[in-house]
Amino acid sequence: MRLLHFLLVTLVAAEDGLDGWLRYAPLDLGHKHVSFPTSIVALNSSKDSPVYTAGLELQKGFKGILSQNLKISHDGRPTSSAIIVGTVAEYSKTSNKPLNAPKLKEDGFWLSTHGNTVTILGQNERGALYGAFEYLSRLAQGDLSPATYATSPDAPIRWVNHWDNLNGTGTHGSVERGYGGDSIFYKDNVIYQDLSRVTDYARLLASIRINGVVINNVNADPAFLTDKYLEGVARIASHFRPYGVKVGLSLNFASPQLIGGLNTFDPLDPSVVEWWRTTTNKVYKYVPDMAGYLVKANSEGQPGPLTYNRTLLDGANMFAKAAKPHGGIVMFRAFVYDSVNLKESDWKADRANAAVDHFKQFDGQFDDNVVVQIKYGPIDFQVREPASPLFANIPKTNVAIELQVTQEYLGQQCHLVYLPPLWNTILDFDLRVDNKKTLVRDVLSGERFKRNLGGYVAVSNVGVNSTWLGSHLAMSNLYAYGRMAWEPTVDVKATLDDWTRLTFGLDKSVINTINKMSMQSWPAYEQYTGNLGIQTLTDILYAHYGPNPPSQDDNPWGQWTRADADSIGMDRTVWNGTGFAGQYPTEVARRYERIETTPDDLLLWFHHVPYTHRLHSGKTVIQHFYDEHYKGAETAHSFLAMWKSLKGKIDKQRYEEVLFRLVYQAGHSIVWRDAINNFYHNKSGIADKSKRVGNHPWRIEAESMTLKGYAPIAVNPFFTASGFKGIVTTSNAPGTATTKVNFPSGTYDLAVGYYDIIRGKANWKVYINDKLLGAWDGDNEDKLGHWPSEFLDGHSATRITFDGVKIKKGDTIKIVGTPNGPELAPVDYIVLLPKGIID
Ligand code: GCU
Description:
Bound molecules: alpha-D-glucopyranuronic acid
Radius of gyration: 28 Å
CATH topology of the largest domain: TIM Barrel
Shape: globular
Strand content: 15-25%
Number of domains: 4
Strand order of the largest sheet: 7-10-11-12-13-14-15-16
CATH class of the largest domain: Alpha Beta
Largest sheet: 8 strands, parallel, barrel
Structural class: alpha/beta
Helix content: 25-40%
Number of strands: 29
CATH architecture of the largest domain: Alpha-Beta Barrel
């Protein structure tokens, strides 16, 4: 009976990703005889209390995992053979058993599980809910061992931020830098009436112990502060409340003028101060337990106090005073820099200096409910950055780190990139303040500088896609973020395994394979994109996605590489450069000041060197670039075989969806590899020692084929096309490109490099000797979710592969491209890959 039920559930369960890691899949107990609790006692009967939620969640978990229906009571005396969940205080009232739990910090919990007797006690209600999720996580992972332990969070602030817009006019879709579909909160300027997705999300967040969520974009719409929207904000808060997640709002600094009818937003003007006070009182009427505010001021065009020659301190403390009576906190972002007047011609100019320049002077003067929210690196969520020196420079100020779960510069969820190892390079970094151990994580916990408030924030940007982030595998980042915010020393590999067991089941080969792929993914992404601390080489003026290294330079955004014909990198030394290295405490500053002591992976972050400069590894910079790009693309290809080995061990829907992305990633890793290598090869004129760059013996360039209704086109940027050219149809009629194969007869993987742009769905067909091999549409914009492109470039460049195609010398390959709208069925090349060749 159990087996039948197991099979049925497995077959019918829609594995679309919506439940994330909270699937509560049936557990196969085999022949084990285990006694489980038979009822639930939840020590609170109020429906929006987290303890009440914990009761329901336990019930749901037991039903899914063990097919048992447990009754919940709220007032009954705790009995044996029950799960008791509640706060320590409540438990002490009802139980006559003394409790030997250690002291818990806010949100902490104590869990004791011994067969049919389970006690889950939280320091507060939220902690009790976390304990319930913890117990269910153990069960779902098949861990039935008895245990008694307590755990408390490392830091009180464990938030996510959402860059959601009301009106959907964000840079792309309604979530700025969101790749999992539109907002779960808003559509067409209206807050959803049906907020069931918010409840689902709250559940996921609570299970990873996130206690705050800011629900609107930092580039903030002031309308959120009007009654019209506050009503909806209150509804959103009521969906998060039962899960212990408090809601916060991003503020627009100019609100008093934009919606308040004042002619100023000067933070020292009494009418402005009064406006924020009364507005905040109103906000708290709607949401009495609001977490607080998030403020992006004087950054990237956002208004702020500098407009009135006031200071950032004036701005932050103005909000702090308004929020204080309500217990609210103000997350004030340190992401303040000048993106208009910065000049690359000035060797000493440096955006990286901005945060310390702006904030250090105010250390010790921020109100105690202000937390300065600092991006992990000095620039902007790059694949490799040093830890922001601001963490070392404001010891008398509360601080939180800002991470990105959404992969803005890191493949936009179309590339598998497991981020926790990257985050650890920052959290584990020792800043050596006063020559003493100063790990970033100990600054965040408050431990190092004895602060009470601080912690973690991640820009999560989930969307309405059933996978939340647009990709099943990307969810490991959200899961691990929560776990790390609670306990930053957690083992990121073990955490990943927990996630995999909960998400895909207990099969060891599944767990090991996903672990292997994920742990290799960030290093691989760094290898095939930007190395040695050069920062992102994505197109920063457009999609932040595909390769475009020249977009970094000659503009005021300050993400410069300073690449010229001979040399590359930012000189951030004190003796000859921007002085940034000197913002670190002495020991660290000294290390970064000298090339000899700077680690290779940050070399170009701190130094400007010739391409022929030898790294500690002994390689030249340029050869390192070439080699790494080849290695990284190879690794991305190896993910395919790894994933395919799991066929049949993962439900079809998720298997296929992940496979689609991995195939895409492998193809796009070649786009990256070739673009970057071609660009620097062209710039430096230095050949690749292994003669791979610019040399593709198995490719047939589309422009060299016999064309009918197709014509060659020079692609811009040139390095995003093989041979720098592609072909497009000359009218809205189909075009054909034909070639005779001159390679030895054999079995090849046949790949077609092409471009898939937005606002058109061209169709391609490929024939071998007039026999159709395959056909596909240009519909990646519907399937992938990355920022799409209107042009033939590094964002739209993609490829499709047909495995194991038998080809004879002299065969004819024909591509028929049918254009659609602006998508003129563009093709870059065909490649016939003998076994083992990746190109
Ligand atoms: C990045 C990102 C923007 C965002 C900004 C911020 O620059 O591209 O979309 O608004 O960071 O963090 O404020």
